[in-house]
Amino acid sequence: VMQCSASLDILFLLDGSYSIGKGSFERSKHFAGKLCDALDIHPDRVRVGMIQFSSTPHLEFPLDSYLTKQEVKERIKRTTFRTSALETGWAQNYILHKGFPGGRNSSVPEVLIIISDGKSQGSTAVPAMQVKERHITVFAVGIKFPRWEELQVLASEPPERHLLFAGDAEDAANGLYSTLSDPVCTATAPGCKVESHPCERRTLETVKELAGSYVCWKGSKQPNAVQASLCPFTRWKRVLIKHPSRCFRTVCPDPCDSQPCQNGGTCVPEGLDRYHCLCLLGYGGDIHCAAKLSLECGVDLLFLMDSSAGVTLEGFLRFKAFLKRFLQAVVGQDSPVSVGVAQYDDSVKVPIELGQHKDALSLMKSIDALSFSGGRTLTGRALRYIAQHGFRGSPVFADVQDDLPRVVVLLTDSKSQDSVAEAAEYVKDQNIFLIGIGSSFMRAELTTVTGNPQQTIIYSDPQDLFNRMPELQRKICSVGNPEGCQAQSLDLAFAVDASSGVGLENFLRLRHFVRSSCLHFIINRDVTQIALVTYGSKAHTVFALDTHTSSSAVLQAIDQVPFLGDSASAGSALLHVHSDVMTVQKGARPGVNKVLVLLSNGGGMQDAAAPAQQLRHDGILVFVVVIGDSDRDTLLRVAGSPNYLVHISSYEDLQYYQGLIIERICEEARSPVNLCRPNPCMNQGVCILGPGSYRCQCHGWEGPHCESRVPRGDSPRSPAFPPRSHVQWSPRGLQHFSRALQHSKRQ
């Protein structure tokens, strides 16, 4: 981030003596490379050279050899260790006599960076003084455990701004930049300033200490006499010595200091003034981790949590964490949702009554206070209790609207020890909607409770529970409303595998799935059009997009679809959809999103990737639903993204994924559409896109979509539209377009 950009000559003096050793020499090289990161190396700005010194100086490379940062750092890496005795004074004399090799002859500021342990065998004081008298700025950088007294003699004044330690390369690079920033380098970045702070310089020194005493014999003045005495003995010891000092460093305001990331997001700085937030699941609504989900629907929402021994303490805590994260994501200050929480085992408690908390903080604190009870699992009894008492009128509920839908979300992972079927029916009789959440172990019981597989949420593992938050949000807000795309216009095609690999029994399941899916759409010329293709080795159009204009006609046609029974080729089916189904001639409407749902057992997918990509290129979403074992990489190439692939283990489980598939289809129906994809122009006409419109450029044909051949000798004409007129599209205009197209076909 910080970089010294000025006309500047910098020469590294690298200690290559045996007191350093090869390991510390390599660290010196690494440090020199790190310092280069703080320099704007360029022929017209900072130039860098290097001398390695021990008993004699050796020029590694002059300042005019390498003119980019990358070249300099690569050359530093290739420097080899030349072990010998250390004579720092000789290296300084070399500088005094020869100057900076390849430098600009003192026409620009000169900086000498000495990287050494400061254990020279000769005198350094005089040559150090002479170097500084030449107006050369000298930085002394300690390596290993340096002799700081000698390095201080080498460094320019004040020493606390010119003494650095190579052990912390990032800190030392900051120190170098901080000293050079004023007045040599360009001004410090806005908001940054140089500050001093206490620091210490460490070294190892050998000291003599008293180890003890021993009996020794000493002579006396009397002849032939000796006397015993206690004599001290000492030993040498290496100790860590700390020298207090002050360091000067450039401090910049961290863009994360203002804590911009909300809802537990982690702020990651990117330079001086940019950052990005790593958001928890469900909090990616904007760059600051705002709630990604929202409950904009008005409901009275009561969570019923299993707190029995069967769910275990771990499971209860998992439900609590899920509940907290979900409510943090969806409940805002202006949320129209009233929330309550109940927990049960063989008894029921309502610690958070409906509408009790008006702000998320107090709600979270109350959820934190929930404790595990661990009794028997009586889910049926709990459901009855909640139906009778969970939504009762009381002062707490004074501002809750009575006409809001009432929703109970059951979180359980333990099979009930009492009957749930009758209790669930009782709850529904009170006009309370039930949503069940549990693991795959609970699928059957939750389906019994909710009465509808689409009102159950099944997670595969503990982490997958948290991935289901968007699904729960959609189910809560779809309460009381039929699922489907409602008034969103959509051209939808199903391609169903009717090969022998699927078999007759499973084909009937696929046919039933298509039939029940169609019930979720408003089928007419203006809203949803549906086409059906079956395929084996070849593809067959059962009915086109414009064949049926009502739900009853579509359902009746689906019931008559025959089983084919030969080999499967999904590629031929996709090509058929591209050329014979999703076309203007076959009823596809410009300006309307288009989706193909491919239902298969995974056979015959080898040739499907290229035609699937062709469909996507023309703006047609390919949604792949595969039942049974199949190569996932092949399926992903066909689907184009994991978001558009549903891989189901068995045909029996297909029904449980219908809600998810319809939700994905409807998301596509709401996305922006390209009016020229697929091409609405017939007979090789070229679609030219305009703002909210398009036009067809025809060759040998005429009409708004190049649908009429130009008679020989006549000029192109169109009674309805001039050849270059723009066609405006809106949902209301779709019916007119379809009728006009049918008329042109008859002509």
Automatic annotation (TrEMBL):
It is found in: Secreted. Residues 253-290, 672-707 form the EGF-like domain. Keywords: Disulfide bond, EGF-like domain, Repeat, Secreted, Signal. One of its GO terms (molecular function) is identical protein binding. CDD domains: EGF, EGF_CA, vWA_collagen. It holds the Pfam family hEGF. This is von Willebrand factor A domain-containing protein 2. It comes from Emberiza fucata.
